Amino acid sequence: MSLEDPIGKRLVNSLFPENRYPIIGVVEDFHFQSLRQRIQPLVFSVFSGDNVGRYLSVRIRPENADVTLKFMRDTWRKFSNGQLFEYEFFDDHFKRIYLAERQTEKIFMVFSILAVIIACLGLFGLSAFIAERRTKEVGIRKVFGSSIGEVVFLLVGQFLKWVLIANVIAWPVAWLIMGKWLENFAYHTHITIGTILLSMVLALLIALLTVSYQAIRAARINPVESLRYE
């Protein structure tokens, strides 16, 4: 059978060769399974006579869906000989398909937020400790003409340096793990350098906001008080 113009030809059932179904139309490929699987061949059959199907797909408008469902239920009862009317929306069907991915997303989201909070608390405490230890140094630098901005950059810079080093170490690990996970899907996105750079910028921004308060507070102390600090 030619695939270029299948309209009008007949499709043969491999299990029952005597059954031949005329092809009346072709639709474009679409996803009806999880993105873990490649798009497979799918046949829509129009049954007649004593033939029955397990499912009936109906396209409805989103407006007044309750009224439409009531009409379908009433119509079904007229011709189904008492068979129960059951239905589901395709969006609910796809939600079940990706239930595991949604649960994994929630777990990663919760642990990521906890990790960020713990890291911020650690950075905040460490910045307070470093600022206190370098109080006299800050006073001496200000006496010799250093501005508040230069002192803040000095205190913040040492933290941002280690955050940047941590990002460089984490990039290959994250790229490898996420790449392996994405390979489970026949259709998936790819981790780009833009995603990596965005994560680095966000990490540096979070670290900057966390330690800047202590740095600015230390830089604004009167040099006389800083030199008297014990």
Verbal overview:
- The protein has 230 residues and is mainly alpha-helical.
- Helices cover 59% and strands 3% of the residues.
- It has a domain at 99-228.
- It has a two-stranded antiparallel ribbon with strand order 1-2.
- α5 runs antiparallel to α6.
- The longest helix is centred in the middle third of the chain and has 35 residues, at 99-133.
- It is elongated and about 95 Å long.
* Helical content band: 55-70%
**Mass-distribution shape:** elongated
Q: Major sheet: size, sense and barrel closure? A: 2 strands, antiparallel
Radius of gyration: 32 Å
Query: Which stretches are poorly predicted, pLDDT < 50 over at least 5 residues?
Result: none
Oligomer state equals: single chain
- Strand line-up across the major sheet: 1-2
| Overall strand count | 2
